[in-house]
Amino acid sequence: MKSNLKGSLMLALATVIWGTAFVFQEEAAKYIGSFTLNCFRSIVGALVLIPVALIMKNIRVKKTGVPEKLITKSSVIGGICCGTALAVAANLQQLGIVLNADLAAGDSGKAGFITAMYIIFVPVVAVFGGRKLRFSVVAAVLVGVLGLYFISVKDGFTVATGDILLLLCAIAFTGHIMVIDYFTTRADGVTLSMIQFATAAVLSGVLMLTMETDTLSVSNLLNAAMPILFCGVMSSGIAYTLQIVGQKYSEATVASLIMSLESLFAMIAACIFYSKLPTVREAIGCTLMMVAIFIVETPFADRVFGSIFKRKKA
What we know:
By secondary structure, the chain is mainly α. The chain has helices at residues 5-28, 34-64, 73-101, 108-115, 118-128, 135-152, 161-183, 189-211, 218-223, 225-247, 252-259, 262-274, 280-295, 300-313.
């Protein structure tokens, strides 16, 4: 296993930033569209990383004495793949937040928990890549789905459209994590992240100019300036780069476990900013999802179900 403290700390710091960013994303939705936010935050993220990538490259050249290119074939291919996955996931997430925010302010906390369902999907996808299916994965899927039911399904067995989009967002983030897991050892992390945001900015920009011209104005952008800057500098430029670099030292399933804790920080941030506590039903669902998150990465379930299976077999 390629996990160590350095990678875990990077991923943990990223989760704190992402969790807090949910509140800023909900605030931005009051003034600009989802594609507009993701376009401009990605532009800011890419611009922030350009000087960082150049400085890091110069440091490596001075240390090794070997000249290198800032942009390589691997970083371009990896950046485009990561950026495409990120654009899909981020836009689904923001649309889900917008639709849920139409129902009640402060739903960003719930959005964080539904987004964290990628902790279940990542190990499942890994199984199709040849890894053995563990009892803990099965148990976590069942508990996670039950938790999602308590969070999302309202009276009359209805699920809000925003919740469906957030679940699709979790699937898209699963793809993003797996793509990063593949490319993180093949290209410089900062450069990879820079190209990732440039790609996400272009894709989101096309959607913005196609579907959100009615809300695209200088006044609206100025009103959303703080959320854009926070999401662009902190959530995109810093946190997503920490993810790419941190995943270099962590297995995909371990990384997804740590990053899924953004849901906890999203709930905490929502409580602080909106002075709103979750309902009993949402609290039960959130608790179940947290249980699922830890089941999938602990040996307890495997030992329990393994012993039961052996007894039945005997």
